[in-house]
Amino acid sequence: MTIGTSGGWRFWYQSNKGTLLAAALFVAMFVIYVSNHPAGFTPNVVQTASNKAILLAFVAMAQCLVVITAGIDLSAGMVLVLCNCLASWLVVGTPLQTGFGIVAVLVAGLACGTLNGLIIIFGRLQPIVTTIATSAIFFGLALLLRPTPGGSVNEALADVFTSTLFGMFPTSLAVLAATILLVWIPFSRSVYGRAAYAAGSAENAAYMSGMPLKRAKLAAYAVAGLLSAMGGLYLTFYSYTGEAAFASGNAYTLYSIAAVVLGGVSLAGGKGSAVGAVFGALAFRTIGDLLFVFDFDPLWQPLFQGIVLMLAIGVGSIGLARVRNRLEWFQ
Q1: Which keywords label this protein (predicted)?
Q2: Between residues 140 and 16, the one the model is more confident about
């Protein structure tokens, strides 16, 4: 019994090592951040940090779903930008109109992700090529909606989703936790979720086993679009406006890839967790907060971010150097 328990804990640790490292890194950096913040550890400081970090967290979750299948989504940031612009048109007016607008934005994100999946699966194009092309399409649509920054949002609703619960816990973190519970966990434990992992680790073997690989990949890309749309909604709630910002879309895409790697998700596919990607996003976002607190020169900030990211990824990848064959990496 002792041996079995020990083996179970060892397996659990190996399976969640990336997530634990990302969580530990985030906690350590956030403690340093609030310890040196002029206001200290207060609900307002936590609320502000949470509202900024949740944007990247949603896109990182979206990226994670695709990367698990051994794919990549270079359009995730542009889906966020497109849904931000769409929300600035639709999430206004009466409660009924606002509700319709939210549903329309989420459906738009779902449609963007589904389009990516359909082209990749049935068009048999490489994910990197497909999502570069669709990212340009999504940005073009965003630009049509918002040639210049503008629009608005239901401010009462925005205030609810960016405030705190009981004056203590950020609502945005509660929404993020609910998304993990209602979207990620059911997906990861479903037949499609297991097939998505199998597609990333050993696609040929999974195909020979009769797993629904095409439907799993399509589901992964579709849900990824939905999660990016949630990030676009939150960007609208946070900024009260819409903007077709090309640089912002590209930044969220690149940072989401960094976040999933930082969270222990293998870019080779088949290994990792959206929870790890979320902690990776929180850790990556906290790096920027640390630079603000310590008043780093803006010219040095990208260099510092890169060094911290490389060190963190290097520590998390030490085990990869000991792997003798690909099968061991997924045990």
Answers
A1: Cell membrane, Membrane, Transmembrane, Transmembrane helix
A2: 140
pLDDT, tens digit, for every residue of 213-234? 999 999 999 999 999 999 999 9
The Cα–Cα gap between 218 and 116 comes to 8
**Between 5 and 131, the higher pLDDT residue:** 131
Q: Which of 64, 42, 75, 50 is nearest to 237 (CA)?
A: 50
CA 311 to chain centre: 21
Close Cβ partners of 32 (under 8 Å, ≥ 6 residues apart): 290
Is 251 in a helix, a strand, or coil?
A: helix
Return the CA Rg of the chain. 20
What pTM did the predictor assign?
0.90
| 266: pLDDT strictly greater than 80 | yes
25, with CB counted inside 10 A (0-12, 13-18, 19+), is: buried
> What are the structural domains of the chain?
24-30+49-316+324-329 (1.10.3470)
CA–CA separation, 73 vs 98, rounded Å? 29
Per-residue pLDDT tens for 89-106?
A: 999 999 999 999 999 999
C-alpha to C-alpha distance for 163 and 157, rounded to whole angstroms: 10
Q: Which string of DSSP letters, residue by residue, matches 80-132?
A: HHHHHHHHHHHS-SSHHHHHHHHHHHHHHHHHHHHHHHHHHHHS---HHHHHH
With a cut of 80, say whether residue 109 has pLDDT above it. yes
Q: Which two three-digit tokens encode residue 308?
A: 């911290």
